[in-house]
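Hi team,

As requested, here is the filled-out complex form for the adenosine-5'-diphosphate run. I kept the field names the same as last time so the parser does not choke. Let me know if anything looks off before we queue the next batch.

— J.
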Amino acid sequence: MGVRRGALIVLEGVDRAGKTTQCKRLVQALRDSGKEAEMMRFPDRTTMIGQLISSYLEKKSNLEDHTGFSLEWCQNPDVGLPKPDLVMFLQVNPAEVAGRGGFGDERYETSVFQRAVQQKFEQLIKDPSVNWKVIDAARSIEDVHTEIKTLSENAINIAENQPIGELWK
Ligand code: ADP
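And here is what came back:
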């Protein structure tokens, strides 16, 4: 019998959509049901490059911003990476969630920038080669969690018997 693989599950969304909250809940729920699960976050601020990005985001250093580049240019570094088995986009109105604890002081934590990010996501979601699911994340933490857990369990069952895909190839 071959070794069954795990699933790569991604939570996406603008700042304060609830990614961290939901990811922690999901990992805990999967572990409680006897599955191994691990949370990863990007950028990983513990690596050398991550520290550079972190200091830039915290406005402690300046780098050239590159925000004028196209979506395709931004996608390029990720082409060919392991394709997620499921990407759940936590859909919220950026203006509404600005009230969730308020934006911090980091670069890009502004409503104007978050609206632009939301629009780029809407373009990416149209790509049928990636298994996107749009989640209404304006509901309670519990309701959002229930949906995310069900979708994740399905994705885990399907991924077991499938090869790992390559992103955007
Ligand atoms: P992200 O990781 O997407 O930036 P967080 O999970 O850190 O978002 O959540 C941002 C803030 O919003 C936190 O204070 C969190 O407790 C709160 N929050 C998360 N989900 C909800 C929700 N469904 N309803 C209300 N508040 C929420």
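Two things worth flagging: Residues 9-39+68-159 form a domain with the Rossmann fold fold (CATH 3.40.50.300). The chain has one domain: 9-39+68-159.

Thanks,
J.
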